[in-house]
Amino acid sequence: MHKILLVCxxxxxxxxxxxxMKKSAAARSIECEIxxxxxxxxxxxxxxxxxxxxxPQVRFQKAxxxxxxxxxxxxxxxxNPMDYGTVNGEKVLDHALKLIASxx
Length: 104
Description:
Blueprint: E1 2-8, H1 15-27, E2 32-38, H2 42-45, E3 51-54, H3 62-71, E4 76-78, H4 81-85, H5 89-102
Parallel strand pairs: 1-2, 1-3, 3-4
Helix pairs in contact: 1-5
């Protein structure tokens, strides 16, 4: 099972994207745990996931968090703003899975 963390400003704006990602994973029989959390939660939870995707509105955090994620062996990237804005769960899921595969 893949564990995917999405991080946004308040943890709310990504909830619809999470649902779309879950539907895409289910349609393809891919076992995933996909959750969204607000930025204040990051330091307490990031180690529990296989990949971390940042919402475009918090992309400025990448510089601070990338070294932590890298030290833990967890890929971290920013969600493509177009995919985020159009709530393209399939593309965001594909990006997450590609990042997970790249760490192996």
